[in-house]
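Structure tokens please, single chain.
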Amino acid sequence: MTSTGNPLQPVLDQQGVVVLDGGLATELERRGAVLDSALWSAKLLLDDPDALTVVHGSFLEAGADCIATATYQASFEGFERMGLSRQEAKRTMLESVLLAVRAVDDFWSVAENREARLRPLVAVSLGPYGAFLADGSEYHGRYGVGRGVLHGFHRDRLAVMAASAADLIALETIPSLPEAEVLLHILSDMPGVWSWLSFSCRDGTRLSDGSPIREAAAACAAAKRIAAVGVNCTAPRYVDELISEIRAVTDLPIAVYPNSGEVYDAAAKTWDDGRDESANWGEAAAGWVEAGASLVGGCCRVSASDISAVRGRVVSPGSAET
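Here you go.
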């Protein structure tokens, strides 16, 4: 992974917006996958990698300009709990990138009107420390560990993924300012690696731990090789205000890919039915772009059909057909 410039910029220059994918787990479950492991979608890297390839393909066919790998909950510690050696864990994480790259290869080899769009990108998805704990703490950031633990956890897997075939790294659902600061410190020692940071938020101005989103965005703006900053796995009703808060402190591209608005019960591992099924995700995304977002997509409970609606609404006619 080496790049002299923001890998998102060519897409932004061509069509003004980058369409992201949606909820990987959502599509997997819709197709019959059982994701009750602490590794969540990453368990399929061991059990059914073909299912991941199919779902990556569904998002590409829906119009995603960038797909994320199935590594949100992947870590050395998590795979070691499943009985893998450190070398096996490393190989599995790198294989996740190759799966996504192959999905892009397959899609691009038969895509129509390739002159109207650019080859889709692959982003390594890495969640917060709380995703490894699998106890819902990525939604509040109170882990009970110090920065040293967070540094070691993130440094090891970032070092692996920095050498992968992905275009950039997506550090997602970050719930706290201290964890973001740890991540930015690690990235500062990885020349050539571009990343975006995306935060989970409790409302329109604060991260899940209560820190102001302005402080988190400003920290990202002061760092090098940050491709975008934004929010994900956050209720859609907060997104417009969060875009405004981020734009107040940085000119970086803003990424927004919220969840469906439903609330996750970490104990029961279920979602409360809070989504308005009459809502059009494409219309919502168009509103976020108008508010200042440059990357739009979805997170948990957002499907490939939702992403198709996004592309059909936010990408100018003639540049989106596949």
